[in-house]
Amino acid sequence: MIAMLIREEAKEIPVFYEADICVLGGSCTGVFAAVRAARLGARVVLVEKQNSFGGVATSGLVNVWHTLHNTEFNREIIAGLTLETIERLSRIGAVAEEKKSHSVGFVLNTEELKIELDQLTIENKVKVYLHTMFVAPFIQDGELQAVIVENKSGRGAIRAKVFIDATGDGDLCARLNLEHRLSSHFQPSTMCAKISGWGINGELQDDMTGNNSLIGLDIREARLLYKDEFNLPEGFGWGRHVPATKDTYMYAGTRVYHANSADGDQLTFSEMEGRRQVRAIMDLVRKYGPDNKIALVSLPSYIGTRETRHIECHYRLTGEDVLYGKSFEDSIAYGSYRSDIHHQDKPGLTLRYLDGEQVYMRPGYPNEVSRWRDKIAVNPSFYQIPYRCLLPKGPYTNIIAAGRMIDMDEDAFGGVRVMVNMNQTGEAAGVAAYLALTQNKRLADIDTGHLRKTMKAGGSIMI
C-alpha cells in the first residue's frame, strides 16, 4: 500500500506562554521536576495531555510505591518530593505503609494523589496546561526555542529556555530526531482495574501478589485452568486494596504482548485489548467463583505502559551497574527495588536481587530459584543513577530527559523503572534546568557537585 501525503498550509500561531523552563509530561516525575525548579525561583510551565497529574500512578491506577530504604531496611536512600507527598497523603489517611517489604513500600489512594499534585503545582506557582497535547518542537537557528501544543483553545506555542522531556515515551526527543531505540524485548503493558468485592479487606496480604484467594477460588489457579475458555494470556497478576476502603482492590492482572505504546495503532489496540482482558477476568470470577460479589469500579484512562523508547544519552546504565551497586560521582537518584523483568517471549517474570538470587515466577507453577551470580562477601544494598543518563546526545544543549525513557539497558531497566526511582530523576532534571538557566551553561556543562548540593538542600538524599 502506497502511503498518501497531504501538505498542511503554513500559518502563524499564537504564543500561549513564555517561561524559563517547560516540562512536558505531568507524571509525578514531571510534576516534581516543575516544582523543584519553581521552588528555586524559575518561571515554569507544565504540559500534560491527561486531565490530571500522576501518570501511571493515577491515570494507570497503579497504587504502589516501593520502599524508600535500602534492601536491609536500615538506611533511608530516598526522600525529597516522594517523601513529602507520602507525608501529605498520610495526613488524610490516603496511604498505607508495608514495612520491610521488598515488593511494596506504600499503597496509595491515587485519586487523592491527583489532588495533592494539583496543590503542589498551585502552591509553587507552576503554570499548568491540562488536556494539552505536545505536537512538535520549534527549531530556529539550530536551537530548540519552543514547543507546539494543541488544546481546546487551538494550536499554539510555548517558549522556554530549557526543556524537560518527562513524557515517558520520550516524545520531544524523538520528534527532535535524537537517537533512540526500542528494545526487542520491551516489557509488555498491563491494564489495571479497581474492583469491589475482591476478598476481605484486612486479611493478611501475600508479600508478592496481594490477595489471590477469593471465596472458593484461587485466581492464579483459575486463570491457568480456564485461560483458553476466556482467551486470557498467561502473565502475572498482583494487587492491593485501596487504603481506607473496605473492599476496593486494584488488580493488575492483564498482559498485552508485543504492542508498542509509542505507536498510535498499537496503543489503540493495547487499550481495547486490555479492557477486554479485564472483562474476561471478571467473567471468569462470576462463573467459577459466584460467591464473590464483585463489581468493576473503574478502569484507567491510560494503559500501564512499562517501556517504550530509550533515549541515547551520555551514559547508558547497565544491569551490572545496578546489580553490583556501582557508585557514580554524578549520582542523582537511588533505588533498591530488584530487577523485575516482565517477559515478552514467555509468561511470568524474572526477579534478580542484589544478593545474587534469581527467581522465575510463573503463576500456577512452582517458583524456579537460582542465582545470577555466586555469593560474595558483601552484597550491595542499593544502586545509583548518574546524571549523564538524563542527557540526550545530539545538537540540542537545552533539553534533558526524566523518567522511564532515560538511557539504560534491559537488565537495569527492570529495577530502575519503578516510580520512586523515576521521581528522583524528575527532581534532578528540574534542579539541573534551573542551574543551567541561571549560570548560562549547557545542561551537560553544569557542575554535578553543585547539582547534588542543591538537590540535598531541597530535601533530596545524596549519598
Question: What can you see in these coordinates?
Answer:
The protein has 463 residues and is of the alpha+beta class. The chain has 2 domains: 15-185 and 383-457, FAD/NAD(P)-binding domain, CATH 3.50.50; 192-298, no CATH class. 25% of the residues lie in helices and 23% in strands. The protein is built from 10 helices and 26 strands. The longest helix has 25 residues, at 264-288. The radius of gyration is 22 Å and the shape is globular. It starts with 14 loop residues before the first strand and ends in a 6-residue tail after the last helix.
Overall, the morphology is globular
Oligomer: single chain
Q: What value does the average pLDDT take?
A: 94
Give the biggest beta sheet. Answer: 5 strands, parallel
Q: Tally of extended strands?
A: 26
Q: Over all CA atoms, what is the radius of gyration? A: 22 Å
In CATH, the architecture of the largest domain is: 3-Layer(bba) Sandwich
Name the helicity range: 25-40%
Tell me the fraction of residues in β-strands, as a range.
Answer: 15-25%
Structural class: alpha+beta
Amino-to-carboxy terminus distance: 56 Å
Low-confidence stretches: 204-208
With strands numbered from the N-terminus, the spatial order across the biggest sheet is 7-3-2-11-26
Count of folded domains? 2
GO molecular function: 4 iron, 4 sulfur cluster binding; metal ion binding; oxidoreductase activity
Protein name: FAD-dependent oxidoreductase
Keywords: 4Fe-4S, Iron, Iron-sulfur, Metal-binding, Oxidoreductase
